[in-house]
Design goal:
The chain is α+β, with helices and mostly antiparallel strands. The chain is built from two helices and eight strands; from the N terminus they run βαββββαβββ. 17% of the residues lie in helices and 39% in strands.
Length: 138
C-alpha cells in the first residue's frame, strides 16, 4: 500500500448522514465504525456516533469523516483535517515528527484502540493533521 493524502471532514452528530450522502454523489464503498465499537468514549450519548468513516469511489477518490466528540470544540468551516495513512511506518513517522514539531499534539503518535499507530496534531500554521500507520491487513 502506498501512502495516501486525503481530506478528513469533521461533523457534529451527522457524520453518518453526510457520508451516506457523499456516497450517493461519488458512488463506491463506505465503511463506518462507531465510538462504541472501539470503546473510544465513556459518554453513552456518543456510542453510536461515527468515530471513523471512509468512502472510496470507483475512480479512487477517498473521503474520510467522523463526528466530533462532545468534549471537543466544533466550528463549522474549521472542520477539515488532512490525513496521511499507509503501511510504511518509517515514512509516516518521519512526516509525524516534522508535522508535530512546534505543533499542538492533540493525540500522541502511539498504538490506537483499533490496532494501528495513530496521532493527531494542529501544526504551527493551524492545519489539523491525522497520521495513521496501518499495522493490520486492510
Amino acid at each position: 500500500m502506498t501512502t495516501r493524502l486525503n481530506p478528513y471532514l469533521g461533523f457534529r452528530d451527522n457524520a453518518r448522514e453526510a457520508m451516506e450522502f457523499y456516497q450517493t454523489v461519488l458512488g463506491g464503498d463506505l465503511t463506518i465504525t462507531t465510538f462504541g465499537e472501539f470503546n473510544a468514549s465513556e459518554d453513552p450519548a456518543e456510542q453510536d456516533k461515527v468515530m471513523h468513516s471512509q468512502l472510496i469511489s470507483p475512480t479512487g477518490l477517498t473521503l474520510m469523516g467522523s463526528d466530533t466528540p462532545n468534549s471537543m470544540e466544533y466550528n463549522p468551516g474549521d472542520n477539515i483535517s488532512v490525513s496521511l495513512s499507509g503501511e510504511d511506518e518509517p515514512e509516516l513517522r518521519g512526516y509525524w515528527e516534522k508535522l508535530s514539531d512546534g505543533a499542538n499534539v492533540t493525540a500522541p503518535f502511539e498504538k490506537a484502540p483499533w490496532g494501528d499507530v495513530f496521532g493527531m496534531c494542529v501544526d504551527r500554521f493551524g492545519v489539523n493533521w491525522l497520521v495513521n500507520v496501518t499495522t493490520t491487513p486492510a
